[in-house]
Amino acid sequence: MTRPLRQPEVSRRALLAGMAGSAAFLAMPSAVLAQAIAPNPIFRHGVASGDPDATSVVLWTRLSSDAPVEGTWELSTTPDFAEVAKTGPFSTGADRDYTVKVLAEGLEPGGIYYYRFRVGDALSVLGRARTLPEGQLDRLGIALMSCSNYAFGFFNAYDAIARDADVDFVLHTGDYIYEYGGKDGWGADVARRIGRVHDPLHDIVSLTDYRTRHAQYKTDAGAQAMHANHTLLACWDDHESANNPWVGGAQNHDPATQGDWATRRAASIRAYFEWMPVREPEWLKVKGRTRMQFWRGYSFGDLATLHTIETRHTARARQIDYMDYADTITDAASAERFKKEVLGAPDRPILSAECEADLSAALTRSVEQGQPWRIIGCPMVIARVEVPDVVKLGLVPDPSEKLAKARTKEELAKLAYDPAVAFAWKGKYNLPDYTDAWGGYPWARERLYDLSRKAGAGDLVFLSGDSHSFWINDLADDEGRPAGIEFGTAGISSPGDFISSGFGEATSRALDKAYAEHIPEVTWTDNMHQGYVRVEFERERGMATFVGVDTVLTPSYRTLVLRRAPFERQGKEVALI
Prior knowledge:
Strand order of the largest sheet: 5-2-1-11-10-9-21-22-23-24
Structural class: alpha+beta
Shape: globular
Number of domains: 3
Largest sheet: 10 strands, mixed
Helix content: 10-25%
Distance between the termini: 35 Å
Number of strands: 24
Strand content: 15-25%
Number of helices: 15
CATH superfamily of the largest domain: Alkaline phosphatase D (PhoD)
CATH class of the largest domain: Alpha Beta
């Protein structure tokens, strides 16, 4: 039996039941599952809203059809649609995979609206959308989520977010879909067991592949509930295209068998814009941008600015592969040289010049307007997560003997695939856990911190994804000056790295503890659960609540609060308390 976090009143925070008729909707209990009522089959992928400003919001749905479709969208200030505030026509067809995306304009700032789509007598489920507030605002609740992998489990955390009465907007920091496939691919064994095998079965490469995968993810009941209840703010990470991309390719892309990288990337981006409630470039206030330049700035009255960033396709330098340098790292001195001269080499960017300029302007404007909070929607963890010596701590076996016996690079490479060996080696030299995260780009990280300080905003709150772990991190720049705080979310369904690497429950918990005790910037971390983080901002302080779900293997689940982390403004800084 599902247990909601809270039983909100419909009149205050309507939890949408997906009903076409108002009487039935208003009669439903406030905690009803949004997926309890089946939508009209022509609207089998639900509805969504997103990418708002103060007077407009994107509305989305998809028609299950094999011929062009015309219809109307409707928007009202009440769920019974007693009065239709806005309406307009839409048309769609095969050229955009029968998706519908409209920009509802001329709305009131801080408004709550209900919307639906109509084709003849067929009605979509009901959705609820918000515009950004203006003027005085005393509270903002954001649900941080990331890493929803269909094959690994049901999106129960999405459903929990849909029912969370303290959430105003939802922020997805990437890995909304995964590109993996194959009968023996990552998660395939779990997928077969629970009936969630990826479609198509192979790694997705073509436009049709990406469209099909997006369609599959939007059939999940929890996903439909979350999208129907809350307006989405989003950025992407890597798996929306392929694992670990950079401007010239990706780790999970083989040109010999999968063709041109630029073609594949373009297909992934096109499908993303078709299937997500995000603004098209022509709907942006800044003209001349492309879909690839996918970053956004949101202002919440006089309380906060939130800016998302694009870290994959517009600037990122190629990731450093430890295997290319393993034979040169032989002691503490050579490890330090590697960190400074290879990982820390100048001009290895993550953010494009245009993204940096927009971010700088947004932070400067926020400071000048006196907003207390500046939030970064960040696809990857930005804290220094340098692995402690897990062998000395007695957490993993010493691999020295195995490594000493390796005579060739091939033998070393085989050992590198053993998670315990690779982990122990990184810990011996206190190396970053992943070179694909900000830890592999210290020059770029310091550049971002410097940009923030120059804007008068050395007090950032990072809301981060990617790692499949929960995080509370206290950030500092290279000179030890405070750079803000970070809250990171575990996956919606993707498993924690320690568990998925085969370390077992006891060792995985011990590794979480060791990270918090031996990594200076890490206050707390948990890789044992899936879930989300609710971050609430008030005028001078806030609270991050880490919400886990007890299972993703069935659609019946319970929620549990794993940790609460209060924080506050202290002069020109922000601090954990």
